[in-house]
Write a structure and sequence with these properties.
It is a single chain. The protein is built from 6 helices and 7 strands; from the N terminus they run H-H-E-E-E-H-E-E-H-E-E-H-H. It has helices spanning 3-23, 39-48, 91-109, 143-147, 182-189, 198-203; strands spanning 52-53, 64-68, 81-87, 131-133, 136-142, 150-153, 158-161. A hairpin with a 2-residue loop joins strand 4 (131-133) and strand 5. Helix 1 packs parallel to helix 5 (182-189). It is globular and about 50 Å long.
């Protein structure tokens, strides 16, 4: 058995252990009320769940929170999951961002899609569909997928887009229940309750509130 196989198996076992711990957690970290979460709340919750939390070179108060499989930073040349939690200023700001992203994705595709908190539109290039809880959106990709987006040309000393299709944001239909893996959702739900049904959100989509997030390079 080679080193990569051992590392991959180790990451898989670590992820399964994290999911097992999540499913047996006791009371949620925060009371089940429709209140906005802080960046510290979200970082602390995913740290408690066992994920690697960190944005190398970014301030600790960035609304983009990178989440990786347990042990991901300790191995090389191994594919692992990378999720992104985006923390909006409040619940109305998140709802507005969700509604706007949904409309824009429908416009790009030229077709209607059901409004969903469990598998919403893609928000970031290279990532899949989005899950929305309170004022937080979750999206997921992998280290290999993100690394494959660009290639380096040694002759021109420039980077160029290698997979332009990953830059096209729309909807992802290949998930059975959630736009991200269930263990990420379970962890977030322990601190962020579902604050509105899809019918309620779809029936009154706010359009005038600008989400409070900082543009950057999430990967």
């Amino acid at each position: 058995m080679n080193y990569q196989s051992v590392c991959t198996r180790g990451l898989g076992l670590a992820a399964l252990s994290a999911l097992s711990a999540l499913l047996t957690m006791s009371a949620p970290v925060a009371a089940a009320t429709a209140s906005a979460l802080t960046i510290g709340d979200v970082r602390g919750q995913f740290t408690q769940c066992g994920y690697e939390v960190g944005n190398p070179g970014s301030p600790s108060n960035t609304p983009y929170i990178v989440l990786r499989d347990p042990g991901a930073s300790q191995v090389r040349n191994t594919d692992y999951r990378v999720a992104m939690a985006i923390v909006y200023a409040d619940i109305p700001a998140a709802a507005a961002a969700h509604a706007r992203a949904h409309r824009q994705a429908e416009g790009r595709l030229g077709e209607r899609w059901p409004f969903s908190n469990d598998n919403g539109p893609q928000l970031l290039a290279g990532y899949g569909g989005s899950v929305w809880r309170a004022n937080v959106a979750l999206v997921e990709s992998s280290s290999y997928t993100l690394a494959s987006m660009y290639s380096y040309n040694s002759e021109t000393d420039e980077s160029q887009v290698a997979k332009p299709e990953l830059l096209e944001l729309g909807f992802v239909s290949n998930y059975m229940q959630f736009g991200v893996d269930r263990d990420f959702v379970v962890c977030l739900e322990n601190v962020a309750p579902v604050v509105a049904s899809e019918a309620e959100v779809g029936g009154a989509q706010p359009t005038s509130i600008v989400p409070n997030y900082i543009p950057g390079h999430p990967w």
